[in-house]
Amino acid sequence: MKHFQDPRLTLGGLFLTAISILFINTSIQIHLLMGISVLYLLSLNKFREAIVYTSIYILLWGLIYVFPSRFGDVGVVIMVTSKMMPMVAIGTVFISTPADAIMLAGHKIRLPQAIIIAICILLRFSSVIRQEMHRIAQGIRARGLLPHWYSVILHPARSYDCFVLPLIIRGLRLSTELTCAAQFRGIENSTSRTCIYSIAVTAKDLIRTVLHGIACVAVLWFGRNL
Amino acid sequence: MIKLENVIFQYGQETEGSGIHNISFHLPPGSCTVLCGSSGCGKTTLLRLISGLAPSVYPGELSGNIFIGGKSIFDMTSSDKATMIGMVFQDPRSQFFMPNVLNEIAFSGENLGLSPDNILSKVKTLTAQLGLSELIDRDLDSLSSGQKQKVAIASAMLLKPPLLILDEPTANLDSTGTKTLIELLHKIKQDGTTILISEHRVHEFLPIADNFVCLKNGSIAAKWTQSEFLQLDCQKAESFGLRHPESGFIDSQKNISAAAKDLLTIKEISFRYSKYAPVIEQLNFSLHRGCVTLITGDNGAGKTTLGKILCGLLRQKNGDILWNSEALSAKCRRLKSYFVMQDADYQLYTESVGNELVLGRTLTNQIRERAYAAMELFDLTKYKDRHPASLSGGEKQRVTLAAAYCSEAELIILDEPTSGLDVVNAKRVAEFIQLLAHEDRSVAVITHDDLLLRLIEGRVIKL
To answer: How far apart are CA B434 and CA B436, in angstroms?
Structure first.
């Protein structure tokens, strides 16, 4: 049986990282926190994600160092984005956990059934919305509306109408159909729930989370003097 | 297995659809029944009632009794429904909860608290039986329509429910996919499962169907056994709004005028999506002005991809596309073409049908007159001020066709325009397509619908 880290531990790690981000205020602290988050990813064999997020982070800081005063307000946005990267990296671990494992974890901590179902639908919709947006964009181009990439800027009101109305209609239709499908899949059954994956808390998972927590606290405590 | 007693249902104001008027029938266990009839006759409503979706999800007024396996559908709990009824919807994409095949099939078992070993064992047996073993680790997004349909059926059958309901299962399948589906349903039926299918392409189900129930205006118009249904001739079948294998045969031989000029010449074009095998290879043909060209082929043959290349939504990897004998970039082709997608919801953007036809164009008297003419031609005048989202599927389809008619596009491409339509509406769409081909434009129709292929005079390109 394939093992996934218990989503509750992942959420704990995510929470610790988020709290740390709130209190850090030096560049060194941000770099250290990003390093810790990358190590967290590597310890879970998420090499591809580690490379992607490290690259994005280096790119963002590269922009800040190369053009320190050229960006104005955009510079602030870049700085805030780079500060959020450690959280985004750990968030990837949560998002990549199978929805049924997350639902089981929610069931174990006695989350209300409505919230468990909402999490399942949210994870399902996050990928569907991307596909729907792509199809709507193709539909718009196929009708010859907004033919150029800059048409969105030239006709903002029309662009808004063209994207939002079909998205609402499709969203309503999908949610109704998913509600119907849910009735025959036992999703509302609240008495018991299982998962085909193992999400038991292993010593390795526990050590990883504890070490991550200690590292976050160390960055907060000692990092301010660096 | 299914028993309906004097069922009367009328939708509430918020829900579109026809009601059901005093229907009673009984389906024995292990039988296969096909619900048929013209579009809007009440097939889907009846399925919703039998499955308990109406009035719980689709509100309305109901009287009468519905029993599944001796138990009233309204007394069933969530787990009762999951173990008693397997439901497969028309578009499998909208019933998937998980991202990959294994998780999706296992989902019902997890929800009901079955042990992981038990679930995995059931999944293994089921996937072997339904020929899905090789797909077990695949992402659902990477599957073809037929494969998604199989996964939807497997997901519905994990708990071995005694009743399997399918709503228009062949709407998105080609002839090969349909044959595979019939074989699959045959295996399921042999295990003693009762099967109820709502369908337009009824004759495809003759090998497994025991009974055919035809609805008209919300009432049962006729009931046939398999042998009785076989005796129905084309005229009789069409009088019930049903398709027949002989429907749509035209007397004149399909040919194109020798004088027709080429609009588009396709020379040796190839296309592949990254990482995957070639979709289109070394293709040569031409599209003529004032003619309809039918592009057909199995699911996954590259029909829609070809349509997107022709109208410039995708760029070919190799080869040339000549427009009036001159090479034209994808961007320029896009400005001269109009692509009508299979699902009209993606291409309707305004608050009224009238505005939809003139969207994106500076409103002059000439354009206004053309929009009125289009509404007249496509029978939309009465819906001029209606919100397109409030129309039925067939009516939305007509709005997108009328918008194409109003446009100045020289090339119009239609993707599966008769998917899920009855014989009467399919014939109307065929007439509308012929209308589009007038005025020296070229029309390409992507379809795997045999009826449409018979109904339209034009050249056929098989991929």
So the answer is: 5
